[in-house]
């Protein structure tokens, strides 16, 4: 591609008479051939990630989602700090309370990042500025994971601080912090994947939040479903992660679960975004 | 330069764009004219790589749009001014575009000034913008990267007469500086004041193509006479001289200069009540026919 560009550009520079330059410098900047003499490089992937991070929080919807998440976490932790019994005010309890709202709201963040290009039709601008749509998809996935990690870090820091100031002890004992982080990241990516696959915000939210729950309910009712759920129920396969008791079989279960709920929709979604007509 | 070669788009049985070919040269404004649903937007989306063509190809500055490494720096595109996140401010929309193009904040300010959006307006959410303000914002985004080519879908939509006059000046300056402009419109009057060349499209096919002066100016001279008998006599005399005459609503549209018609009228001793050059003439009729055939008003009439 680079070679194509250079030949195209040298054609242009030989075609343009040299007097062009003198007139151009004399007058105000004009849409002449000057810029085409140095092909502007494409935005780097890091730059695209920065753009996607910005787009996730620069709208009212995105900002409010983060505010609501913080408020819910603070309220839950505050309630525990005020009314919790002596033994309950541990880091583990604070974290447990914060993980729940994050598990529900973080995937929505990923979904909105993926669907806004289509529901708000900003794709018309995004994909004319970056026609290689695969790069945009990659940037969205990375940005959602990064944003998720930032939120998790802030919430964890707050929980730990609250626990310490209310006289709790710094003992993570029952839960594995890296496990919880991995689980929440999986949920965020599941959100992005569903958003890309469905390209419709309400549908993706219902799909990403309700379907795994329906799965869980079904598996408690039917033994045959329960057998498959060991491998495919996202809530079930991420369970041992939180407890920090992963063994070989658990990793295999996690891999299939993630494959079904994250990798598969992500593949479908990427294919859809790459081939779909942007209107 | 924009080159469109045999561009075709089919959706199942329906052919939205049917084998269109034309070139937009640097230094010119080409108006892509056609009634709603004629295939203008589909064609422009194919040029900008948003819609894959069924067959044919389009290149911008000698390259397929998708092969431009940073297209915003070469081609300014506005396909739908309303396609913006309603929750973002105008300034934020431009800032994101600037980040894509690798430009700094100063250029965002310059672009806002260029389209006449005030600081206060730029800080408001796009959801609260009027259509005219969205068009200005869309133009600002298109001009942001200081491109050599502009591709604009219905840019005059929602602009008041003063706004249209302003845009005409802006595009004229852009083209005079060596820029290439392709814009679409469903209004003949709009296109004829802005464009140097017109490509008219109906039901996906090009139906007329040429310079605006050839298509709109030279063709039609409107001729009116004192009564119907005089008009008939004049029409017969003009036809006898191998001139193309169409009569509609009490006037003749003649494919000849006013002077030629005036001389014929003098010879035939017909008193004229109207003799005006520059009527849109046959192009306008063709356009009205096209519009009538595809529009709901036409079906109802």
From TrEMBL, chain A:
The chain crosses the membrane at residues 64-85, 91-112, 141-163, 175-199, 206-231, 251-274. Keywords: Membrane, Transmembrane, Transmembrane helix. Residues 1-30 have a biased composition (Polar residues). Residues 1-39 are annotated as: Disordered. It comes from the Bacteria. This is Uncharacterized protein. It comes from Phycicoccus elongatus Lp2.
Automatic annotation (TrEMBL), chain B:
Keywords: ATP-binding, Nucleotide-binding, Transport. Pfam families: ABC_tran. It comes from the Bacteria. InterPro entries: AAA+_ATPase, ABC_transporter-like_ATP-bd, ABC_transporter-like_CS, P-loop_NTPase. One of its GO terms (molecular function) is ATP hydrolysis activity. SUPFAM superfamilies: P-loop containing nucleoside triphosphate hydrolases (SSF52540). Residues 2-228 form the ABC transporter domain. Belongs to the ABC transporter superfamily. This is ABC-type multidrug transport system ATPase component. It comes from Phycicoccus elongatus Lp2. The lineage of its organism: Bacteria, Bacillati, Actinomycetota, Actinomycetes, Micrococcales.
């Amino acid at each position: 591609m680079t070679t194509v560009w250079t030949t195209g550009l040298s054609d242009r520079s030989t075609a343009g008479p040299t007097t062009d330059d003198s007139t151009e410098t004399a007058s105000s900047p004009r849409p002449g051939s000057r810029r085409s003499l140095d092909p502007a490089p494409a935005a780097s992937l890091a730059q695209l990630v920065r753009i996607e991070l910005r787009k996730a929080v620069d709208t009212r919807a995105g900002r409010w989602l983060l505010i609501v998440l913080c408020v819910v976490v603070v309220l839950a932790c505050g309630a525990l700090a005020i009314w919790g019994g002596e033994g309950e005010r541990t880091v583990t309890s604070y974290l447990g309370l914060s993980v729940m709202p994050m598990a529900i709201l973080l995937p929505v963040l990923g979904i909105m990042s993926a669907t806004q290009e289509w529901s708000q039709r900003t794709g018309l601008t995004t994909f004319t500025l970056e026609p290689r749509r695969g790069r945009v998809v990659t940037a969205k996935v990375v940005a959602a994971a990064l944003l998720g990690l930032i939120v998790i870090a802030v919430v964890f820091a707050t929980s730990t601080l609250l626990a310490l100031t209310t006289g709790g002890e710094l003992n993570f004992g029952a839960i594995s912090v890296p496990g919880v982080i991995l689980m929440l990241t999986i949920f965020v990516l599941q959100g992005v994947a569903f958003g890309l696959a469905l390209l419709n915000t309400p549908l993706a939210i219902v799909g990403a939040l309700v379907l795994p729950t329906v799965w869980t309910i079904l598996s408690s009712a039917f033994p045959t479903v329960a057998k498959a759920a060991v491998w495919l129920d996202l809530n079930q396969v991420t369970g041992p992660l939180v407890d920090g008791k992963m063994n070989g079989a658990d990793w295999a279960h996690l891999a299939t679960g993630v494959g079904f709920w994250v990798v598969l929709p992500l593949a479908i979604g990427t294919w859809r975004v790459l081939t779909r007509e942007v209107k | 330069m924009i080159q469109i070669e045999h561009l075709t788009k089919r959706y199942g049985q329906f052919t939205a764009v049917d084998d269109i070919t034309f070139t937009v040269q640097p230094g010119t404004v080409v108006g892509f004219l056609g009634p709603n649903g004629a295939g203008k937007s589909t064609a422009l989306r194919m040029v900008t790589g948003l819609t894959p063509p069924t067959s044919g190809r389009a290149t911008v500055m000698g390259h397929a749009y998708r092969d431009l490494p940073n297209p915003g720096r070469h081609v300014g595109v506005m396909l739908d001014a309303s396609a913006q996140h309603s929750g973002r401010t105008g300034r934020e929309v431009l800032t994101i575009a600037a980040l894509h193009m690798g430009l700094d904040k100063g250029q965002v300010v310059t672009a806002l000034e260029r389209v006449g959006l005030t600081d206060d307006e730029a800080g408001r959410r796009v959801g609260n913008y009027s259509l005219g303000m969205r068009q200005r914002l869309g133009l600002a985004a298109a001009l942001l990267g200081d491109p050599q080519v502009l591709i604009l879908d219905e840019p005059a939509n929602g602009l008041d007469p003063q706004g249209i006059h302003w845009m005409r000046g802006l595009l004229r300056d852009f083209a005079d500086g060596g820029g290439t402009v392709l814009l679409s419109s469903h209004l003949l009057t709009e296109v004829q004041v802005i464009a140097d060349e017109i490509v008219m499209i109906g039901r996906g096919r090009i139906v007329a193509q040429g310079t605006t002066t050839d298509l709109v100016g030279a063709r039609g001279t409107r001729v009116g006479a004192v009564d119907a008998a005089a008009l008939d006599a004049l029409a017969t005399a003009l036809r006898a001289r191998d001139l193309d005459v169409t009569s509609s609503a009490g006037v003749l549209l003649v494919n000849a200069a006013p002077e030629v018609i005036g001389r014929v009228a003098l010879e035939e001793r017909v008193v004229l009540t109207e003799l005006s050059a520059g009527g849109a003439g046959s192009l306008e009729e063709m356009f009205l026919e096209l519009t009538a055939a595809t529009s709901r008003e036409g079906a109802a009439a």
